[in-house]
Specification:
The chain contains 13 helices and twelve strands. It is of the alpha/beta class and about 325 residues long. Strands 8-7-6-9-10-11-12 form a seven-stranded parallel beta sheet. Strands 2-1-3-4-5 form a five-stranded parallel beta sheet. The longest helix is centred in the C-terminal third of the chain and has 19 residues. The model has no long low-confidence stretch (mean pLDDT about 95). The protein binds nicotinamide-adenine-dinucleotide. The site of nicotinamide-adenine-dinucleotide has 31 residues, from α7.
Length: about 325
């Protein structure tokens, strides 16, 4: 006999909720929520004891409709799609799953760095085109990664994991994060600066790892790119709206930025596509081999995906059992 009602929003095109159902247990009636319109969602979820949220936004209008919800669990790290203030007003804890994909996103960020610095896109394309493309100079002038400076914006879990990888590659690592305690940089063995311009002026590669907040929205803007060392790489695996894609396009066109790797975009999937993406999709010569875009997939592999599903459901289960909310971000 089900004691609790839990709704889970759709993830990707998959309807499989077996992992969550198994984790939540037999006394939970787990229902798949396909609706995306807030008014429709609000009318459906009123009786929810818990919500598991993938990528469907949960605005105040939905949260205010919840009559007995004990927890909203965001299946992921970022929780900007949930109105956490409205949830606080309603006394509902919002929890995230902060640790399921730390290594995976760091690997992805580093994969983007390596692919761009090693000219992998150009080499692969040219060799596929025939033996005329067989030549070490075919990808243009490459520079040695060892000894270059990686600038990390946001020295939290993923930023730290990227820093550790960069050290193994012989890079110098400098971080900017006004919020982590002093000494964190010493524990990891990296340098720290206290202003963004100080960081950017030394960056051969800059990698973004902040959450999306009012402060970080549009943080990588025209001034940010102009402050970079010429020829830098820009990597964003954080949140799309942290980076102004039009400003990045201008910086790529001017050559200030040599190349960029983006796993996230302001709107996902991009509709309409920003001009930069359209130029790249159209195969325009100036952007060839200088851009990699992946579909917000940095977190993904079979193991991390399962870990997220289990941990999200465990968090909901604990709240249903009256335990203190784990990884609460709003109370
Ligand atoms: P975290 O909370 O551990 O680290 C974020 C760090 O950013 C914190 O240390 C914080 O102090 C710092 N920060 C906040 N505002 C800042 C500012 N204005 N300037 C500099 N630093 C600032 O988060 P995390 O787990 O490392 O995740 C980092 C980002 O990666 C988040 O945006 C998250 O949503 C995103 N993410 C993306 C994927 C993906 O698949 N692409 C997967 C997981 C997480």
């Amino acid at each position: 006999m089900a004691k609790h009602t839990v709704y889970i929003t759709q993830h990707g095109d998959k309807d499989d909720i077996s992992v969550e159902a198994e984790t939540l247990g037999d006394d939970v009636d787990l229902r798949l929520l396909r609706a995306t319109d807030p008014a429709e969602i609000a009318s459906i979820v009123q009786d929810a004891d818990a919500l598991l949220v993938w990528r469907t936004p949960m605005p105040a209008s939905v949260i205010e409709a919840l009559r007995r919800c004990k927890v909203i669990v965001r299946c992921g790290v970022g929780f900007d799609i949930v109105d956490i203030h409205a949830a606080r007003e309603s006394g509902i804890p919002v929890c995230n799953v902060p640790d399921y994909g730390t290594d995976d996103v760091a690997d992805h960020a580093f994969g983007l760095i390596l692919a761009l610095r090693r000219g992998l896109l150009a080499f692969s394309d040219l060799v596929r085109g025939g033996n005329e493309g067989w030549g070490y100079e075919a990808a243009g002038r490459l520079s040695r990664l060892t000894g270059q400076t990686l600038a990390i914006v946001g020295f939290g879990r993923i930023g730290t994991a990227v820093a550790l990888r960069a050290k193994a590659f012989g890079m110098r690592v400098v971080v900017y994060d006004p919020y982590v305690p002093r000494g964190q940089e010493k524990a990891i063995g990296v340098e720290r600066v206290w202003s963004l311009p100080d960081l950017l002026g030394q960056a051969d590669v800059v990698s973004l790892h902040t959450p999306l907040t009012p402060e970080t929205r549009g943080l990588a803007d025209a001034a940010f790119f102009n402050a970079l060392k010429p020829g830098a790489l820009v990597i964003n695996t954080s949140r799309g709206r942290v980076l102004d894609v039009d400003a990045l396009e201008a910086a790529l066109r001017s050559g200030r930025v040599l190349a960029a790797g983006l796993d996230v975009l302001p709107t996902e999937p991009p509709n309409p596509a920003p001009a930069l993406l359209q130029a790249w999709r159209d195969g325009e010569e100036w952007i060839k081999h200088r851009l990699i875009v992946t579909p917000h997939a940095a977190f993904y592999n079979e193991e991390s995906y399962r870990e997220m599903r289990v941990k999200a459901a465990q968090t909901a289960r604990e709240a249903l059992d009256g335990l203190p909310p784990r990884n609460c971000v709003n109370l």
